[in-house]
Amino acid sequence: MLQEVVATRYVTPLREGGSLPGIVEADDLGTYVMKFTGAGQGRKTLVAEVICGELGRRLGLRVPELVTIQLDPVIGLAEPDQEVQELLKASGGLNLGMDYLPGSLGFDPLAYQVDPAEAGKVVWFDALINNVDRSWRNPNALVWHGDLWLIDHGATMIWHHNWPGAQASAAKPYNASDHVLAPFAPDIAAAAAELAPLVTEELLTEVAAEVPDEWLAGEPGFETTDSLRRAYVEPLLARAGSIHERISIGEPTRTQPSRAPGWVTERLAPRPQATERDRGVRAEAGRNTEDGDR
């Protein structure tokens, strides 16, 4: 199971996301981004965060460490923001924490390059979990110490919102035209060859076991939490072997219009190599500038 810590201080809300996560300090002296059971998206968001986040970590992708956080609602009594106070009061008990990466920056495709191998792994992984929320508009990625880190996996495995249609939903293709890493020529075939064999029934059972029972209990149609865990394993296992054949990166369609605009892709295009003549012209211009300064 995930390490469990106790929240000792609520520091500040993060207002970038709709669920209003917050930074908290815990009794292990760590600092975490906490996502709340009382948020409007509900506990299934936390289930998705655990399964997909832990799966990504085991596949070698950079995902911040996850913990569960015990929250005493009394911690919110001094919070001046009424919305935050109500959220804290509604989230007593076990919540989810993600290791806070101090000094990290939001990923910007215009400022940070990703090689095709890494881009391929991320796109393949997002296709596997059907992540609909790593677009150029909302990258859900950070740059920390020069490396790309993946965050926010709550909008994944959409089939768990309608279990009767889970198998059919999991069989659908993945349109990556809108993916934030689509402009980096992701090598999806190489990623599938490396990662797909790692997604075994044993691995998926292991990551599903990380989800606390209380976030799974009472799901309609399932008598036990173990049967529900199995329902998470089966679509991912079936999807892993062939999803690379159903990933598309192309022109926007009427149902998927939000592809990165031209000014993004143009800025990302490789720049032509300077010729000897170009370098000579620039050198001459530099000498003229220096003479003028003197």
UniProtKB/TrEMBL annotation:
Residues 274-294 have a biased composition (Basic and acidic residues). It comes from the Bacteria. InterPro entries: HipA_2. Residues 247-294 are annotated as: Disordered. Residues 14-240 form the HipA-like kinase domain. This is HipA-like kinase domain-containing protein. It comes from Streptomyces clavifer. The lineage of its organism: Bacteria, Bacillati, Actinomycetota, Actinomycetes, Kitasatosporales.
